[in-house]
Amino acid sequence: MILNKLSEILGRKRIKMSELARMTGLARQSIFEFYHNKNKAVKFETLNKICWALECKVEDILEYIPDEENR
Predict the structure, then answer these.
(1) What tens digit of pLDDT does each residue of 1-35 get?
(2) Computed from CA positions of residues 44, 48, 54, 59, in that sequence, does the dihedral angle turn out positive or negative?
(3) Which of 28, 30, 45, 63 could form a disulfide with 21, with the two C-beta atoms 3.0–4.6 Å apart?
(4) Which helix (H) or strand (E) element contains residue 2?
(5) For residue 61, which of 13, 21, 4, 2 has the smallest C-alpha distance?
């Protein structure tokens, strides 16, 4: 399972989704879908823009947690 920690980071930094959209130039809908785990894939370009805007690494946003059923 991939754990998305974008909401945690935005909360900690007190940044709203609309502000992140403005900072990155990404559509607010794209940020909303990523924030709420509604998307099935994420482009590297999107991750790059988010990491740049939040001054973080990809591993700060996404974490891999092994599924018990896939072992």
Answers:
(1) 889 999 999 999 999 999 999 999 999 999 999 99
(2) positive
(3) 28
(4) strand 2-4
(5) 4
DSSP structure string for 27-70 = -HHHHHHHHTT--S---HHHHHHHHHHHT--HHHHEEE---GGG
Single out the residue of 39, 57, 38 nearest to residue 48, CA to CA.
57
Report yes or no: 58 and 51 within 8 Å, Cβ to Cβ.
yes
Q: Residue 42's closest CA among 31, 55, 54?
A: 31
Q: Which two tokens stand for residue 60?
A: 């700060």
Bridge pairing between strands 62-64 and 2-4 = antiparallel
Which pTM does this prediction carry? 0.86
